[in-house]
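Assess this one:
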Amino acid sequence: MKKVLVLHGINLNMFGKRDPAQYGTVTLAQIDEEVKVFGRELGLEVDCFQTNHEGEMAQRIHDAHTDGTSAVLINAGAWTHYSYGIADALAILEVPVIEVHMSHVHGREEFRHHSVFAPVVKGVVSGLGVDSYKMALRAAANLLS
């Protein structure tokens, strides 16, 4: 079974409490469960990881280089817009990486319109709430087949 790593970055542990107008009321635990169930339907094993510490995120990405990870979905939160360190870590990977956002980042503040991950990801799914993760997971499954 192919393994997909779902990475959640800074402040995403606050889903369900943080800005419900943008992110809804679903919690990160609920997102993880939905993604894991959908992954099984697609024949994928899904591993989820969240941290508010940039170095921990980089280390988890480094670990993905050798732990059998077949694809990565990343919603790095605000790090998406300025973390060259995480972008560099993602660039080390030889597997497909898909950027994910629950909110429609291009309809929000100007600083959210730019992703420093853009040069190293296969694609971006944005603005569809939890379905952003599911669509990205389906895309990963397609890329792996």
